[in-house]
Amino acid sequence: MNSMLSKFIRHSCSSSSSKPSRLTKKECISILQRCNSMRQLKQIHCQILMSSLQHNKDIMDEILVFCTRPQTGDLYHAERVFETLIDPSLFVYNLMIKSFTKDRQPEKAILLFKSMRNASMSPDNFTFPLVFKALGELRAMAEGRKVHGFTVKTGFEFDPYVRSSLMDMYAEMGAIEATRALFDEMPERSVVSWNVLIASYIKCRKFEDAITAFLRMEKSGVELNEATLVTTLSACVSLGDLEMGKKVHGFIENRGIKGSIPLNNALLDMYTKCGCMSMARRLFDEMPSKDVISWTSIVSGYANSGLFEQAEKLIEEMPYKNAKEILPFLASLLGACRTHRNVQMVKKLEKRITKLESSLAANRWEDVTEVRRRTKDQGIKKTLGCSSIEVNGIICEFLAGDASYPEKTDIYSVLSSLSRAFHLEEEKEVDMRMIEMV
Where are the PPR repeats (predicted)? Predict the structure, then answer.
């Protein structure tokens, strides 16, 4: 900590100091910019009040910037400071709306936007995307359409950033037709707008449309980026479309695109989840850099394919050696072994996990709690199972645990009938074996 800040903190708001030194605006901003904790900031804020500088916009902006930093700030304190401002600037409104949106408080973000409008302040192209994101989280279609109309009136309708965020808002609400209409109306389409369209189809579970959009984008001449490829690969995973996944991989190699860790992980995820472990292993071995996601994908891929020995061998080869790091991988493997009813491997893994948890508990019980949480999140909790069948040219998709199908009653009735029929057949087989034994 520099001497100026140290000296200030020692004297500000101290009971032993009968006459705290008053700060100038320049000194105050300089100190705020070097502040590194909320404790320090509150002491500085106290001295600002003593120096009657609480109405200086530049100083209050600095306080709010610090308070809204996710790592060191305090959004609650920022909110209290904001309430004291007489005439907040557009910058401050945008800062607070952004912070509430990032902090998953969309209701407060929208209320602040309304307050801004009531103050006759005009939003800009930074405001609207933040508001659309908040509205998307709230699924507030009526309000979203109103704000959409407002962008038309204010001339921001075709701003690329605003347009893309508007497309994303409608996709969050499941209104993919509105997203597509906005895309089609665009005079020029950038890589960002194409990426938003592909991602929107995926959000609305229109995976085939996402692939079609990717192919159209490729033909349009717009330069694809890493986000395009990662998103498209996720559509291939959802469809179980190994051939399309291979085409995307071929596109990457033909264009000489150097795979970053996220892109290589997306390819690895596609191969493992499509059951092509030979290509997955080849890709994994060729990856110049790997992270925990890379190792999780390959281990889970082997485990879910029933190749438990290979999965266990990879766990031994991992660069992660302590119990806290290894346990989530073992839990993932354990879950797959239970699914495949590999009793011998289940018993072996359970013993090993118990031993590792015991060694961890000897050091810190908090670590055990954290590992168990990670175990649940990373190992046992899985993406919902999805299957699809084609009936009379129509693809019907089913999600595990989803009981929202219109034909639910008929489906369960047929399944019940089949189940009873299977039980009857089993009983007949048992009866025949008993007769043969007599």
Answer: 89-123, 190-224, 291-325
